[in-house]
Amino acid sequence: MKRPWVRRTLGNGLQVVVVEAPGAPLAELRLVVPYALTEPREAATRELLAARLGTGSTTRDRRAVADRTADLGAELSTVVTVEQLLLSVSVLSEGLEGTLELLGDLLSRPAYRDLPTSPPPPARPAGPRTALRRAVLAHAFGLHPLARPPAAEPAPGPVTPDDLYAFHRRAVVPAGSVLLVMTGAEPARVLRLVAEHLGPWSGGPSGLTLPPFGRTAPAPGRLALRHPGADQALLLTAGPAVPSTDPGHAALHLAQLVLGGQASSRLTRRLRERHALAYAVSAALRENAAGTWLEIECAGAPGTAGRLAAEAADVLRELAEDGPTPQEAERARRYAAGFTRFALATRAEEASALAGFAARGVDVDWLPAYAEAVGGVTHAEVTAACREFLRPEKTLLATADGADAGAEEGRTQ
């Protein structure tokens, strides 16, 4: 469903998107702030600030914030991803103005003085899955914050209030952030209220943005890691892909679903049903500010890593050379159409999806238009996408295993 929407940028750099939802009893607000971990030594500060943001200000303590939220009929939550901090609010429509006032207070006048004085937890070594993912990204795309391990030495002492205030001034800023408001209220009024209550918020632009990968296409090859004591074998790949705004993305999406994105996929039938090699099989298109890649992820019993990689390479080769059957392409199309409808099933889910698009600079009506694009993809176009993107010689296949890798060359993590 395409909804009317407007986009404006305030004087402080905050991008505001108002999406009309006539008659909606709730207003949905999504504030997306760039929040990538660009410096490993700041990990503890980043995590603690995300946990404390929204719990108090210099004018309201935790109880006052909770009471005001309840009075407005609002629910507030904060989620941190690899590159963003997402602050979500669902509120009764009549509480929209009060919610914007509360947000402005929390963002402009944070309170971090009453921190517990506990030392930071000791750093834990990365598990097999995390170590494998970092190795894949480093090999495929070169040095990058996403591939960088945490700081070898812990930060000196616990995180202090001054640390949080300094990080807030640098990270929680309007310039570079996006606020999406989905509401039945008149857009001009909403924009006026946002400017009134969030216009005084200042700072930026944020430096916590992911830089692009050094390579647009992953370096192919074979990587085998040994992780003594691991209780499963892992396969992770990185293959070429195009971003969601590319005209060829819809065909690649269907090719990815045929490969490993649904229960009847080629990888599932081969690795789980035919050979019982893996109990978890998936393929996905990964996309963020750093880049885009096609990923296969599988988990199986210890000692099966080499076989997992060989079978996955065979599936890639078969699809690249012969393409999917018309029936497979049609099943993938139906699955993609159903998933798109599911993503828009509730206004809360719709608002979160649209905020993600807006934060990437994509029009908020991209998803409904994409559903139409998927419906128009031909079998020949899916076959061409398989031929271009699924060739194993273009893919990095990486494994981690705790058992003896036999003839495989590896390195200990």
TrEMBL record:
Domain of life of the organism encoding this protein: Bacteria
A UniProt-annotated Pfam family: Peptidase_M16_C
InterPro entries linked: Metalloenz_LuxS/M16, MPP/UQCRC_Complex, Peptidase_M16_C
Domain annotation Peptidase M16 C-terminal: ranges: 159-334
GO molecular function, one term: metal ion binding
Cited PANTHER family: METALLOPROTEASE, PROCESSING PROTEASE
Protein name: Insulinase family protein
Organism, as annotated: Streptomyces klenkii
